[in-house]
């Protein structure tokens, strides 16, 4: 089985889990941790490590909020566990895709999901109508 752990500063991971489950349905294999002001990232990572170490037969996909942040940097210490894969730059599409993929993921499959979710981050330029009200006029 595969489990997904979302980690972030503040309540971002909680909100991300809630929003993703609005689309994918409630999932037992999804959990989240948020680092709150005054808390230590080392304590949060120790709690996550304990969860993973008690369940060595499952694959864990740990997704953090921002590359280079304390939460992401702390999660790097989980790489010594053989059943853990890490990603950063959490977004809603990535979490939804992970929830819909039921089987364990290879390194390349995990990387492909992360990459495809990054491709959807776009700047939306102002759209101005040139003609009628037809949707084709906008694109």
Chart the SSEs and their pairings:
Blueprint: E1 2-9, H1 12-24, E2 30-35, H2 41-53, E3 59-64, H3 70-75, E4 84-88, H4 92-100, H5 107-118
Parallel strand pairs: 1-2, 1-3, 3-4
Primary descriptors:
single chain; 139 residues; alpha/beta; globular
Describe the model.
Helices cover 38% and strands 18% of the residues. It has helices spanning 12-24, 41-53, 70-75, 92-100, 107-118; strands at 2-9, 30-35, 59-64, 84-88. A 4-stranded parallel sheet has the order 2-1-3-4, with helices on both faces. Strand 3, helix 3 (70-75) and strand 4 (84-88) form a beta-alpha-beta unit. Helix 1 crosses helix 4 (92-100) and helix 4 runs antiparallel to helix 5.
Tell me roughly what share of residues is in helical segments.
Answer: 25-40%
Compute the CA-based radius of gyration. Answer: 18 Å
Q: Give the SSE order as H and E letters.
A: EHEHEHEHH
Give the CA-CA distance, first to last residue. Answer: 43 Å
**Which class do the helix and strand fractions yield?**
alpha/beta
* Unreliably modeled segments: none
Count all strands and give the number.
Answer: 4
Biggest sheet: strands side by side, in what order? 2-1-3-4
How would you summarize this macromolecular structure in one to three sentences?
Helix content is 38%, strand content 18%. It is an alpha/beta fold.
């Amino acid at each position: 089985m595969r489990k997904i752990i979302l980690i972030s500063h503040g309540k971002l991971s909680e909100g991300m889990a809630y929003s993703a489950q609005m689309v994918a349905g409630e999932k037992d294999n999804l959990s989240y941790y948020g680092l709150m002001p005054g808390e230590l990232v080392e304590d949060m990572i120790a709690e996550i490590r304990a969860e993973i170490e008690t369940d060595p037969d499952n694959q864990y996909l740990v997704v953090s909020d921002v590359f280079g942040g304390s939460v992401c940097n702390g999660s790097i210490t989980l790489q010594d566990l053989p059943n853990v894969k890490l990603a950063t730059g959490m977004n809603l599409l990535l979490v939804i895709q992970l929830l819909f993929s039921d089987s364990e993921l290879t390194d390349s499959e995990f990387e492909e999901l992360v990459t495809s979710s990054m491709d959807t981050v776009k700047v939306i330029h102002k759209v101005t109508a040139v003609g009628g009200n037809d949707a084709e006029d906008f694109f």
